[in-house]
From TrEMBL:
Keywords tagged on the record: ATP-binding, DNA replication, DNA-binding, Helicase, Hydrolase, Isomerase, Metal-binding, Nucleotide-binding, Primosome, Zinc
GO biological process, one term: DNA recombination
The EC number(s) this enzyme carries: 5.6.2.4
Catalytic activity: Couples ATP hydrolysis with the unwinding of duplex DNA by translocating in the 3'-5' direction; ATP + H2O = ADP + phosphate + H(+)
Binding site for Zn(2+) 1: 431, 434, 471, 474
Gene of this entry: priA
Organism the protein comes from: Rheinheimera pacifica
GO molecular function, one term: zinc ion binding
Annotated SMART domains: DEXDc, HELICc
Annotated protein name in UniProt: Replication restart protein PriA
Gene3D superfamilies recorded: P-loop containing nucleotide triphosphate hydrolases (3.40.50.300), PriA, 3(prime) DNA-binding domain (3.40.1440.60)
Pfam families tied to this protein: DEAD (PF00270), Helicase_C (PF00271), PriA_3primeBD (PF17764), PriA_C (PF18074), Zn_ribbon_PriA (PF18319)
Lineage: Bacteria, Pseudomonadati, Pseudomonadota, Gammaproteobacteria, Chromatiales
Cofactor: Zn(2+)
Binding site for Zn(2+) 2: 440, 443, 458, 461
Amino acid sequence: MTVVRVALPVPLRQHFDYLIASDQPCQIGCRVLVPFGNRQLVGIIWQLAPDDGFDASKLKTVLQLLDTTPVLPPLLCQLLSFAAEYYHYPLGEVLISALPALLREGRNLTDYQPKAYRLTTAGLQLNSTALKRSAKQSALWQALQSHQLTESVLLQQHSRATLKQLLDKQLAEELIVPPVPFTPPLKPATGLKLTSNQALAVTAVDQACGRFERLLLEGVTGSGKTEVYLQSIAGLLNQQQQVLVIVPEIGLTPQTLARFQARFDVPVLCWHSALSDSERLHCWLQASTGAAAIIIGTRSALFLPFYRLGLIIIDEEHDQSLKQQDGFRYHARDLAIKRAALQHCPILLGSATPSLESLHNALNKRFIHLPLPDRAAGQALPVFELVDLKQQVLQFGLASQTLAQIKKQLGLGLQVMLFLNRRGFAPALSCQECGWLTECHRCSAFTTYHKQSRQLVCHHCGASKAVPRQCGNCGSTQLKPLGQGTEQLEENLQQLFADVPITRLDRDSTRRKGALHQALDDIHQSGARLIVGTQMLAKGHHFPNVSLVVIVDVDGALYSSDFRAPEQLAQLLTQVAGRAGRGSSGGKVLLQTHYPEHVLLQDIINNGYASFARSALKEREQTRLPPFQHLALFRAEAHQSELCQQWLQQLADCSRQISGLQLLGPIPAPLERRAGKYRWQLQLYSPARPQLHTALDNLLQQLHSWPLSRKVKWQLDVDPTDLT
Ligand SMILES: Nc1ncnc2c1ncn2[C@@H]1O[C@H](COP(=O)(O)OP(=O)(O)OP(=O)(O)O)[C@@H](O)[C@H]1O
Ligand SMILES: [Zn+2]
């Protein structure tokens, strides 16, 4: 017997030792099934024959070694162990979360590997009349005479039942098909003639191939960033190198997939949460064997075990969805940069509205900066126009000049997009007699009225209930929607423009499988003339017939306490606006607001995002906010507010003992109560990363022994992007 040290998916910051027979072919990164308490868990072998700290007589024995080759190859083990340290999250949970569900459950990998079938010696020697009573078996036997058939080819002509009969009679046998990396495209891909800035960018990526380099493509909306991605990839595919493209939304994978598939004659695969478990495992296998040339996926694609990864592209690198917001709270962009470093390959970050972090790195030359200041086909950038809502009579939240402009564009046969970042019918129902508002009883928030489903839904905790008939305070039946969401805007537009087809694009309207695809089709085929939607509309879509974008209401977002709010609003406005005028017809953006003089709005419309971002960086420098200091956030949640405060206060007292830390808090979170629990936070700032990490290690060690730590639910978020 020998000892292996195993990382297990449990919330403990330690590993566990087990015995295993000495002749078992264990390697680091292989899965094992082990007894743990009264359960059985799948874990990852993390160390072979450790020579410290165990008492062999007390150890339990591994129940099963699940792999003979590591499911987590050494490079991924390195990446994940870095991630566990950086985000201060238990290694076992990090390792297991990087695997597809079927592997996490302990399934046998070989069951999912592609199979082929051939005749056994008995099958080859069989007399041709032996199977004459079964025409189907005879046909399959004939088909296997000359050569083996892969499972997929075989099942095109023959049934699984027939195959099983030949296998049962031992006339045929199964073998696992040895993996073959994809073959380089036979015909060269023809791309567009690049603009000079695009050509410079492609050359820079080409030159970076084969070594670690970080490049930021700062290209205005419609500047042809995707064309740069496509042309940067061509050379790598010829060298049989794989490419990973990370996109922020599942919604963007189909269109990106289509563009890549149309360009290259190689296997391009998708990776996202809407795939079934076996589809995900298939993609994982294709990445690991080198059979997939390009994988387009959402953030967790970062953990796929590529066979020969040559380039990572992060599209919309500023997007908030790249950060995981629960459990293991990693940032896919930052970990992808680490992966590229381990992999010795370049990473290309692209955005029209780069994050201040990436822009800072580009301006101080840590990243290669590749600007694309103009739209690719020479179209002008959309022109912003502020619509002052003060002292205006609004019709359904729209000013008369807004309505006139919508009519004009529709008259010209063009499409109009209306952006409102609030789904549902109305943000609340209100009593006309006493002013009572529908509130979530578990959160400090109102409940959104959804008219179609006749429900009041809390968008924070997900709780929903039927719409009440009466006011909860005075009993009046006069309940009216307060404010407007996308569902209502759609209904109102239908009244105003009776014959004009409308498509709504938000999380509610696209929940049904295939609905998003249908909506995008409607827009692209120009079936839909008015498009209503939330921020889903803002991301990466190319709708050439949209000539006018109306931003219905931004006022709620203008005054927020979160220091990232201005950056996020500027990104959102620029991205939404960027959907206008991408075809030949020019574009305009109407921004409705009660605060037309607001500094942020003025800056965005007069100077654009690039200028806004540079001055926002200066402000962050003066106020010593990220990226000029590093931030870690402790959150505490409990049914009693005082427990959170006390626990964070204890943490703050310990933090004060550590030099070089600046504290903000404990303070109640902006959303003070969610799902019945009070929420508090403590922000820790430090000018140097190593110092911050040492401090966090120190604090984590101490807090585990505090009795209060068991009474609150706490989390640590390193480089938080969401302070709500
Ligand atoms: N060199 C070029 N010459 C002509 N047209 C081009 C060129 N490069 C790109 N285009 C076209 O410009 C349009 C916009 O390109 P693309 O969608 O790649 O922009 P983008 O920068 O990714 O935009 P966004 O950030 O807004 O999503 C596309 O129709 C694309 O085919
Ligand atoms: Zn709630």
